[in-house]
Give the backbone structure.
Amino acid sequence: MVVYLDANAYIEAKYDFNNFHMSRLVKLIDEGDIQLLVSKVTTYEVYDHIKKDVTEEINAYKKVIREKMPIVKREGSLKLNEINIVEVVAGVQSKAERFFNSTRVIQIPLDPMNAEQLIEDWYSMKPPFETKKPNEFKDAIMINAIRNYQKSLNDIVIIISADKGVQKVFDGDANFVNFEHLDEFLKFYIEQIKARDAKAFVEDENVKDSLDEAIKAYANSIDVYFTEYAEWDIEDKEVNDIKYEVKYISQEETKIYVAVEANAEVTVEVMYRDEENSYYDKEDNMYYFERYILAKEKHEIDFEVGLILEMGISTVSEITLDKIELDESYYKLSVELDENTRIDNEIIRDSLEDC
C-alpha cells in the first residue's frame, strides 16, 4: 500500500517517530507493508515547523520561569541559558532527516512541474488555493508531484492530510483515498485486513501453495528415531505423499493462526544391530558377535503443525500474504518410528552375507 503523509501529520505527532501511531506506521514500513512517499515540499515544511515549534516551546518555558518561578530563578537553581534553541532544533531535525532518508521511504521528484496549470489554478482559486490561503504554491507543487508519481506507479495512493485544500484536490479521484489523521488510516488498514474472511484467505490458491511449501518444509525438518533397535543410524531420509487437513483457523489483526493435522510417508535407510542374531555376553559385558542390517523402511507418520500467516495490503482492495512462519507452541521436533508405523521393509545389506 502506498501512502503520502502531508507535513501536518508529522506536526500532529510532534515529530515523535516512537509514539503509538507513528511507531505502528514505521513498523509497517520496515516490514514492507507500506511504501511511504515524501517530497522536498513536505520535508522542508517539517524542518521549518520544527524550528518554529521548538522555539515557541522553549520561549514559553523561559516565560514560565521568569513569571511563575521568581524564587528559583533568583536562587540560581535553574539557569535559563542551559537550553540552547539551536541545539534542540538541530537534534529534532536530525531525527526527522534520518527518517526521511531511510531506505524504505521513497523520495518523489517535484519535476516535471506544470507551471501554467499552477498559475491558472491560483488565478481561479481552485484547490489547494483558497481565498484564506491564496499563496499555497508549495502545496500545489507537492500535489503535482504526487499525481505524476501515481501515474508512473499505476496504483492507488493514500493521502493523509488535515489540510482541507489538499483533501478537496483528491476528493472523488479513484486513484487516491483521503484520510485526515494517521490514526484514522491505521484503523482503516486493520479493518481492511479483517474484512477478508480468514478461511477464504487461507484457501486462496496462492496462499495455499505457500501453505503447502511450509508444511512440506516442516515435515522434512522433523527428526525421526527408533526405540525398537538398541543401536541404529539413519543414513538417508525422504518425506513424500504429504496430506493435511486444516482443523482450526483464528485471526488477530493482521495474523491468521492455522492448526493443521498432517500425514506423510517417511522412507529411511537405517543401519541397525539385529539383537536376536547377535551374541552379547553379560559377564564379559561385550558383544562377541554382531549382526548389522541395512534396511530401507517406509513408515506412515501423523503430526500436527501450527502456522502463522501475516497478511499485508498491496492496494486498497488486494490483500497479500507477507510471510508465513511456524507457531512455536506446535513444535514437534521428533517422531518415533516402530512396527506400528512401518508399512514396508526391504533389506539392502546383511552383515552375515559379507562374512
